[in-house]
Design goal:
58% of the residues lie in helices and 5% in strands. It has 630 residues and is mainly α. It folds into 2 domains: 359 residues, no CATH class; 91 residues, no CATH class. The chain has a 5-stranded mixed β-sheet, sandwiched between helices. Helix 2 packs parallel to helix 25 and helix 4 packs antiparallel against helix 5.
Length: 630
């Protein structure tokens, strides 16, 4: 050693040279929490203001909850049909038993389901490879609440509020099962031994059994609640079968099947007892037996459907400028699918990296090991592809149905499950914006930049380079893009940011439109409460009314008033609970109720008079009550 060569150089212990783990900012997580609380608070304020407006279908679910709370009935299906499970009624029954029947009590579980949906979406975005800023973007988008979106999320009308949180939970379980159990890995040297590796695999499989059971249980509950989610269940199930097929042959498959049977037990037992086919009932109800031209279906399904379902439209309609999301949705769906497919098909990086000391704790890949992160990226890509395939299948099935052509505005609720695929759908936009340097860059790299190895500090980090025009290859080199490539990257990033800004802006406008309709909804709810109070004061126990009046009136009165459905010609209509009609027919003093200005009111006005057999009128703001004269 040359004398003086080490002058001024202080030797430090090995531990002192260990690279520090970058401190991750908690700002996006805090902002996401605030955004989530604001979203839940906004929806709670809507509920307290009687918005979104209720209807007789929601009241039918409320009546099921009331019967469950009293122990009088335990319905499997929405009253009057052989599909759409009553999960919402069972969730609300304890609250109805404590506080009595009301729309607010009925909707509190759906509000909790929405809060769970936000939390699970944050977690899913992170597990699929997104950083905290991207997860914040996803939560912010899902926090918006247009007229159609809040109806899907809050109205306990059957099938919709529970689909999105359960679908995201299913995707999370799929990621967890395919990527392994965090924290269960043995050190690399121990895993290299055959016996130790076999023991670790067996231990990991045992740890995963509750998750297999959870996957089956959630899938079964979803199929019972509403078969609309079936494409997502099948797509995510295909990922599981492809990644864990050997494990599925053993105990995992038995546990999953048991969970599936348990979740779907109400549907299966009822089908066996009564010979019902829920899928056929869904197809019939969706309009499969009613003609609609293909031009009407394509317009309702592909043009109106995605903007309505994902919150880009004003209450009850879509303005022309709000339809820009229709082509953007299809393009994004294709781009996201291509991106996920390319990642899935990309060869694994070389595993034999020698003994380069990537970290002082000796956790580095050795010959024969899969570099850390490569498998995780493949799993993330597979789950994203499954979510996109599920969304595409749902959209295709809806477009093929006549409901898309006959009632496109109201039937857009069938596309509410598209929100489950939001993290996968927005991934290309986020990636393009981040590569162009137009969005906060995370500490870790995205999947398209190459494999990431634990404990390795990238050259760009060591030199302090955050140049947006640089690309990391293999985690060891920093290569500047050519000017042409840089311009293309900036252009793609600019388009991505513009689309993201357009999404948030259009959704915010639609949310403002929903807020603007709250006063009218609240006033109508006040008039309905006055109707219920007036009927109670008059001692009326049985009435005849239209479909959209009957069950709402019965639920609001706690079944003190029972109603039989009639059409505008005073003929018997569709009663979801036939027992109500029998009670009304047995009462000679049964009254009639009709909204002011309705065709039913006009027909009943013709029967007003002073003599026996005629009707006398009692007016309530917005309503007309007709009492028989004796």
């Amino acid at each position: 050693m040359i004398p003086g060569m080490t002058a001024g150089v202080r030797q430090e212990p090995r531990e002192a040279t260990r690279p520090r783990t970058p401190r991750r900012t908690r700002l996006p997580a805090l902002l996401a929490l605030l955004v989530g609380l604001a979203a839940v608070g906004y929806r709670l304020a809507l509920l307290l203001a009687d918005a979104p407006p209720t209807n007789s279908d929601e009241a039918t679910m409320g009546l099921a909850a009331l019967h469950i709370a009293r122990g009088e009935d335990f319905p499997v299906w929405f009253y009057g049909q052989a599909y759409m499970g009553t999960l919402e009624a069972y969730l609300a029954a304890p609250l109805v038993a404590l506080a009595g029947p009301s729309v607010l009590v009925l909707r509190l579980p759906t509000l909790a389901l929405y809060a769970l949906f936000l939390a699970l979406s944050w977690r899913l975005t992170r597990r699929l490879g997104g950083d905290r800023w991207f997860a914040l973007l996803v939560v912010g988008f899902l926090a918006l609440g247009s007229d159609r979106v809040v109806k899907n999320q809050l109205i306990a009308g059957g099938g919709y509020p529970e689909l999105n949180p359960a679908g995201v939970a299913l995707a999370l379980l799929t990621v967890s099962l395919c990527a392994g159990v965090p924290g269960s890995r043995l050190p690399c040297r121990a895993a290299a031994a055959g016996a130790a590796a076999a023991g670790a695999a067996a231990a990991g499989a045992a740890v995963r059994l509750p998750r297999w059971a959870g996957w089956g249980l959630v899938s079964g509950l979803l199929l019972w609640a509403d078969p609309l989610i079936l494409p997502f269940v099948l797509a995510l199930g295909a990922v599981l079968a492809g990644r864990r097929r050997r494990e599925l042959i053993g105990r995992a498959g038995a546990v999953l099947a048991a969970g599936l049977l348990l979740g779907a037990a109400p549907m299966l037992l009822d089908s066996l007892r009564h010979g019902r086919d829920p899928l056929a009932a869904v197809l019939t109800a969706s309009g499969a037996d009613t003609a609609a031209t293909w031009s009407e279906r394509l317009y309702g399904g592909l043009v109106l459907g995605p903007p309505m379902a994902m919150g880009f439209c004003s209450p009850g309609h879509c303005a022309g400028w709000q339809l820009w999301w229709a082509p953007a949705f299809v393009v994004l769906l294709l781009l996201a699918a291509i991106t996920a497919w390319r990642t899935l098909r990309r060869p694994l990086p070389p595993a034999d990296l020698g003994h380069f000391p990537f970290a002082a704790n000796d956790n580095f890949p050795r010959s024969g090991d899969d570099p850390a992160g490569a498998t995780g990226r493949r799993v993330s890509a597979a789950v994203r592809l499954a979510l996109l395939a599920g969304a595409a299948a749902v959209l295709a099935a809806y477009t093929a149905s006549s409901a898309a052509g006959r009632t496109p505005v109201e039937s857009a609720r069938y596309l509410s499950v598209l929100a489950v695929a939001t993290p996968a759908l927005l991934w290309p936009l986020w990636t393009a914006a981040r590569r162009a340097g137009l969005w906060p860059s995370p500490r870790h790299r995205d999947e398209a930049a190459g494999p990431e190895l634990p404990g390795v500090r990238q050259v760009s980090e060591l030199t302090g380079s955050d140049h947006p025009g640089a690309r990391q290859i293999g985690g060891l080199e920093l290569i500047h893009r050519e000017s042409g490539g840089r311009m293309r990257t900036l252009a793609a990033g600019g388009v991505a940011v513009a689309v993201l800004a357009g999404m948030l802006g259009t959704g915010a406008v639609a949310t403002a439109g929903a807020i603007g309709g709250v006063p009218a909804t609240h006033a109508e709810a006040d008039r309905h409460r006055a109707l219920v109070d007036t009927l109670g004061a008059l001692g009326v126990r049985h009435v005849r009314a239209g479909y959209w009046t009957c069950n709402r009136l019965t639920f609001a009165s706690g079944e003190d008033v029972r109603c039989a459905v009639v059409d505008d010609e005073l003929r018997p209509g569709f009663d979801r609970l036939p027992a109500y009609r029998r009670a009304v027919d047995a009462d000679p003093d049964a009254a009639w109720v009709a909204p002011a200005g309705s065709p039913l009111a006009a027909r009943l006005d013709a029967r007003l008079g002073p003599g026996p057999g005629t009707l006398r009128l009692v007016e309530v703001p917005g309503w007309r009550i007709y009492l028989p004269r004796r």
